[in-house]
Amino acid sequence: MMVKREGQSAVNDEREGAMSDSFSASNSSSGPALFKVASTSNPASVAGAIAGTIRERGRCEMQAIGAGAINQAVKAIAIARGYVAPSGIDLVFVPAFLDIEVAGEERTALKFVIEPRR
After folding, report:
1. Cβ atoms within 10 Å, residue 84
2. Count of H-run helices and E-run strands, the chain
3. Are the C-beta atoms of residues 108 and 99 closer than 8 Å to each other?
4. 25-72: per-residue pLDDT in tens?
5. Among 28, 66, 24, 71, residue whose Cα is nearest residue 45
6. Please, are residues 2 and 27 in contact by the beta-carbon 8 Å criterion?
7. Is the pTM of this model over 0.90?
8. CA 6 to the chain's CA centroid
9. In sequence order, which ranges of the chain are alpha helices (DSSP H)?
10. Are residues 14 and 44 in contact, defined by beta-carbon separation less than 8 angstroms?
11. CA angle, corner 10, sides to 74 and 68, nearest 5?
């Protein structure tokens, strides 16, 4: 699957359900991984990235703008729950509104904080 990381060109990232996709990942060592999901994103590919990040870092975040992107994001979380369940991990997410600027225009996005149930 091709994953665009902030400040880099597209790189290969092998995860469960990997296919070429249209979502991007921003990973910094200090904060949680941030996935930006589009309406054209493949939910299985996003789910694989979520599952891998949860296993490696314990938590991640996703951003989506628009009904189609939000739909794909929620489906990806549901699929990711199935990927990590055999490991004894039960995923939960907390949605929140987020005001962001895209191409000089103020937009409202949904942010999903995804982590294991405690």
Report:
1. 19
2. 2, 7
3. yes
4. 665 556 678 999 999 999 999 999 999 999 999 999 999 999 999 999
5. 24
6. no
7. no
8. 14
9. 43-57, 67-84
10. no
11. 25
